[in-house]
Amino acid sequence: MRHFKVNSDGSGLAASDVAENFSDLHPPLSPAQAAVEAARCLYCYDAPCINACPTSIDIPKFIHQIRSDNLDGSAKTILSANIMGGTCARACPTEVLCEEACVVNHTEGAPVKIGELQRRAVDHLLAKKGPHPFARAPETGKRIAVVGAGPAGLSFAHRAAMLGHDVVVYDAKEKAGGLNEYGLAAYKMADDFAQAEVEFLLGVGGIEINHGQTLGKNLLLDALRKEYDAVFIGAGLTTTRQLSAPGEALDGVRDALDFIEDVRCASDKSKLKIDDNVVVIGGGNTAIDAAVQAKCLGARNVTLVYRRGPEAMSATGWEQDLAASNGVVMKFWASPKSFSGSGKVETAAFSEMREQGGKLAETGRNFDIPAGLVLKAIGQTLNEKALDGLKIERGKIRVDENYRTSVEGVYAGGDCIAAGEDLTVQAVEDGKRAAHSVDAALRLPKSGDLR
Amino acid sequence: MTDLGCTIAGVESINPFWLASAPPTDKKYNVERAFKAGWGGAVWKTLGEDPPVVNVTSRYGVHRSFDRSIIGINNIELISDRPLDVNLREIEEMRREWPDRVIIGSIMAPLDEDAWKSLAIRVANAGVQGIELNLGCPHGMCERGMGSAVGQVPEFVEKTTRWVREAVNLPVFTKLTPNVTDIMIPAGAAKSGGAHAVSLINTVNSVIGVDLDNMVPTPTVDGRGTHGGYCGEAVKPIALHMTAEIARHAETQGLEISAIGGITTWRDAAEFIALGAGAVQVCTAAMLFGFRIVEDMNDGLSAFMAEKGYKSIEDFKGAATTRTVDWNALNMNHDLKARIDDDACIECGRCFIACEDTSHQAIRIDAKDDGGRKFTVIDDECVGCNLCMHVCPVKDCITMEPVDTDRPYVTWPEDPRNPLREAAE
Ligand SMILES: Cc1cc2nc3c(=O)[nH]c(=O)nc-3n(C[C@H](O)[C@H](O)[C@H](O)COP(=O)(O)OP(=O)(O)OC[C@H]3O[C@@H](n4cnc5c(N)ncnc54)[C@H](O)[C@@H]3O)c2cc1C
Ligand SMILES: Cc1cc2nc3c(=O)[nH]c(=O)nc-3n(C[C@H](O)[C@H](O)[C@H](O)COP(=O)(O)O)c2cc1C
Ligand code: SF4
C-alpha cells in the first residue's frame, strides 16, 4: 500500500513532496521483478482470470510471453484484446477483476500481479515508439462518426479503423482520452500517460479527431446520421448529481469531478491551493480519488462522508484502504443536511443515518464538520438533453446486445449505456464489440440488394 | 542416535558428504573453509604434471528455469592450474591439521604408464587417503588425449586403473565419464583394472546456450565458444541411473560407488545411497550456494535416518537396488487411475489440457453451480500415466489410486499379448 507524504502537523507540504505524491501509484516492475512475478503464473488452461477480464485478454499467454522474453508479443496479445491495456493496467480495480479470479490466491494467498505485468509489457512497446503493431484491413470506403473520445469512443475508433473503415471522432473537450485524461486519479496516470496512449492508438491510421465539438450544441445527431454510414456514441456521463441541500451554492462547495479535473490539468500541482479542511461526500471511486488527491495536495483534515456502511461503497476495499491508510477519515452512516458560512463555506452539517426496513432514515442526531472545501461525489448521470431522439432507460441510453440504440444506424457504449460496471475496461470492451457490430451491419447487403 | 559416519573403499569419513574435485577444492584456503563448514572430505582439484595448464577467461555458462533459478551449469575449465608442489604442500598441511577429514588426490596424466605411476606416487606421498583417476573431463583435456578421451575407451580405463593400483598402496577410485552409451562397460573395465570404487558422474558434454545477438555459443571466449561439461541439479537423473546400473548388476558387484551429479540436498544424497552409493560428492551446489549448504545436508540426512529408524548409512545403502529392474520385469497387470480431490482443486485446468492434448483425453470438465469448473477423471480412458498428477500445481490434489485387478503379476515376456512370448511351462 502506497503511503503519500501528508500534512499531519499543519506545516504544509513542500513542492517536492507534492510532486512525489503525484508520481506513479505503483512504480513499474523492474525486469527482474517482472520475471519473478511472471514465473508465479500457473499458465492455467481456459483461465479464470481471462473470464474475469471484461476484455478477455489472454492473460496466461501474455505472461508466458514475458517469461520467454517476448515482450513485444506479450504487448500485442494484450492490445489485440484491449487497445487501452496500458491505462487498464494502471486503473483497473484488478482486486475485483482478473486478480480476484487468479487461482494462485488459493495456493499462495496472493494473486499474480496481473495488472503490473500487463503494464510492463505495454509500457515496453509504447516506449519503443515503433510502427503501430496492428494493420488495417483493406479500406471499405465506409465512414463512421464517433461522439466522445473517451475509452469507449477511442476503442471503437481503433477497432473500426482496423476493420477498414474511416473514423471521425468528435469531442467537446480540448484533449482526447475522456476520463483517462480528466478523471482518473493523477497518480494512476503519471507522466502524461493518457496522451501517450492516445497517440499510440491513433497510429493505426484512418482516425481523425475534432475537438470542441459538442453534441446537442454545435453538433447534431441528425446531421451526423446523414453524413456518415454509422454513428457511435461514447459520451460518458457528464452531468453531476446535486444534493439539493441548503447552502450548496456557497463558494467552496464543488463537484468533485471539477476538482479532480483541475488537479489533472495542473502541470505544477504544488501551485494548487488546497484548504486545510476538506469534506468529500460520496462512496465511489470519485469520492476516494478526490479525498486522496486532496491529501496529496496537503489538505490537513480530509473527511469522506458516506450515507451507508463501508460494504455498500462502490469503491473497492483496496481503494478504501488507500484512503484510510493515508489519513482520510471515513465517516459512515451520515448524510449532508446543509452548508453554511459567510460568503464561503465554513461548516458542513450532517445527520446520522441508519437503515430501517431496507430504507435509509435519519436517526435524529446531527453533527457539524468544519469545511473550507466540500467536494460532491454522489454520481454522474447522462446529459439527456444532448441525446435528443434516443431512448433512455433508467438513466442510460438503451441498447440491444449489438450496441444498437433505438435509432437506426446509431450505436452506443461505455458509461452512457447500462452494460457492466462504469469502468474504463468495460468502456473499452463496449467500443470494441460495438465496432464489430457496426462492421457486420455495414458489410450486410442492403435489403434492396438482396434479390 | 544416528551416525552419519561411513566407510567407502576402506576410507573412513565422519559423514558421506565430500566435495568433488573441482574449483571448491582448488586450494587449501577453500578446503579449510569447507571442513570448517562440516564437509567430511574433499577430492582435491585434479592434479597433472607440471607445467600446469593455463585456463581461458570466461569459463561458466548456466541453464535457468523461468524463475531464474539455475538448474545446471556448464564449464570449460581444465584441471588444476597451479604448480604440483604447491598443491602437494597444501595437501600435506591439510592432512596434518584436519586428521579426521578425508582428502583424496585426483590425478590425470597422458596415456603413459610412467606418467600415471610417478604422479600417483608423488600425490600418495603427500598423505592422501585415496587416489581418484580423472577419466572424465569432457572438454579441453580430452583434446590432449586425456580425461574423457581415456574414459571412453574401456581398455584405457582398465590400464590406467591398474597402473595406479600397482603404483600405490591406497584405495583407488576411478572417476567415470557419463559420455558413453553404456556405463557398465567402463565400470566393468575399472573393476577389471582393480579399482576399489568408481566415482561418477563427471560432467555431461554440452553446449549450454547460444548468444543470439552475436550468434556464438556461451560461455564465449573472444567471439568463439566450445562445448563444456554440464552438471548441477539437471544431471541428477542421469547420475542416479548410472549408479543404479552399477549397483544392481552382477558384473560390477563389489565395486563401491562414490556418487556424484546434481546432489543439492540431503534428499538427493539419500536417493543415491538408496540406489547403492557408499558416499556422495558435490560440486555445483557448493559453487552456487557456498559451503554452508552442507549444514542442512548433514542435518536433514540425520533427521531422515532417525525418522526411518536407520542407525547408519549402511542400514539403507542399496535399499532400493533390488527394486530397480529391467522394464521386462515390471507387472503388466498393475493398474492405476488418477483421482482429483475436489476440495483441493484450484481449477487451473492444467491437468485437463495436459491429458487432452498429449495423453489420453481422460479428464472431463463440468460446470459447477457456483460458476466454477469440476474436473473428473474418466476411468475408462485413464491409463494411469501420472502426467496430470505431475502438472498439478497443488501437492496431493491429484493422486494415483491402485485398481484392484485381481490379476497375477505378469511380465511382458510372459504376457499373452506379447507376440514373441515364450510359452510358459
Ligand atoms: C473520478 C473518476 C475516477 C475513476 N477511476 C476509475 C478507475 O480508477 N478505474 C476504472 O476502471 N474506472 C474509473 N472510473 C470510471 C471510468 O473513468 C469510466 O468508466 C470510463 O472513462 C468510461 O469511458 P467512456 O468512454 O464511456 O466515457 P468518458 O471517459 O466519460 O468519455 C466521454 C467522452 O465524451 C465526451 N463527451 C461527453 N459529452 C459529449 C458531447 N455531448 N459531445 C461531444 N463529446 C462529449 C467527453 O468529453 C469525453 O471525452 C473513474 C471515473 C471517475 C469519474
Ligand atoms: C568448474 C568445474 C570444474 C571441474 N573440474 C573437475 C576436475 O578438475 N576434475 C574432476 O574430476 N572433475 C571436475 N569437475 C566435475 C565435478 O567434480 C563433478 O563430477 C560434476 O560437476 C558433477 O557433480 P555436481 O553436479 O555436483 O556438480 C568440474 C566441475 C566443474 C563445474
Ligand atoms: S493419469 Fe494420464 S491418462 Fe490418466 S487422467 Fe492423468 S494424464 Fe490422463
Helix content of chain A: 25-40%
Shape of chain B: globular
**What is the fourth-level CATH superfamily of the largest domain in chain B?**
Aldolase class I
How many extended strands of chain B? 22
What is the CATH T-level topology of the largest domain in chain A? FAD/NAD(P)-binding domain
Class from helix and strand fractions of chain B: alpha/beta
Radius of gyration of chain B: 24 Å
Q: Please tally the β strands of chain A and state the result.
A: 17
Question: How many domains make up the 3D coordinates of chain B?
Answer: 2
CATH superfamily of the largest domain in chain A: FAD/NAD(P)-binding domain
Largest sheet of chain A: 5 strands, parallel
Uncertain regions of chain B: pLDDT < 50 for 5+ in a row? Answer: none
Biggest sheet layout of chain B: 8 strands, parallel, barrel
Question: Overall pLDDT of chain B, averaged?
Answer: 96
CATH topology of the largest domain in chain B: TIM Barrel
Distance between the termini of chain B: 51 Å
What is the annotated CATH architecture of the largest domain in chain A? Answer: 3-Layer(bba) Sandwich
Question: What is the topological layout?
Answer:
The complex is a heterodimer of chains A (451) and B (425).
Chain A: H1 15-21, H2 31-39, H3 48-52, H4 59-67, H5 71-81, H6 85-91, H7 98-101, H8 104-108, H9 114-128, E1 143-147, H10 151-162, E2 166-171, H11 179-182, H12 193-202, E3 207-211, H13 221-227, E4 230-233, E5 239-240, E6 253-255, H14 256-265, E7 277-281, H15 285-297, E8 301-305, H16 317-324, E9 329-331, E10 334-340, E11 347-356, E12 359-370, E13 373-376, E14 380-381, E15 392-393, E16 396-397, E17 410-412, H17 424-443
Parallel strand pairs in A: 1-2, 1-4, 2-3, 4-17, 6-13, 7-8, 7-13, 8-9
Antiparallel strand pairs in A: 5-14, 10-11, 11-12, 15-16
Helix pairs in contact in A: 2-4, 4-5, 4-9, 5-9, 6-9, 10-17, 14-15, 15-16
Chain B: E1 6-8, E2 11-13, E3 17-19, H1 28-37, E4 41-43, E5 60-64, E6 70-75, H2 84-97, E7 102-107, H3 113-125, E8 130-134, H4 148-151, H5 154-167, E9 172-175, H6 184-193, E10 197-200, E11 204-206, E12 209-211, E13 216-218, E14 220-221, E15 224-225, E16 228-231, H7 236-248, E17 256-260, H8 266-274, E18 279-282, H9 284-289, H10 293-308, H11 313-316, E19 336-340, H12 350-358, E20 363-367, E21 373-377, H13 387-391, E22 398-402
Parallel strand pairs in B: 3-4, 3-18, 4-7, 7-8, 8-9, 9-10, 10-17, 17-18
Antiparallel strand pairs in B: 1-2, 5-6, 6-16, 11-16, 12-13, 14-15, 19-22, 20-21
Helix pairs in contact in B: 3-5, 5-6, 8-10
Bound molecules: flavin-adenine dinucleotide (FAD), flavin mononucleotide (FMN) and iron/sulfur cluster.
